[in-house]
Amino acid sequence: MKVLAIGSGKAPLTDEQKQQYMPTEVPATLKLYLDGKMEQFWFRGDVPGVVFLLNTASVDEAAETIGALPLAKAGLLTFQYIPVGPLMPLGMLLQGK
Question: Which of 13, 20, 39, 40 has CA 20 to 30 A from 51's CA?
Answer without folding.
Answer: 20
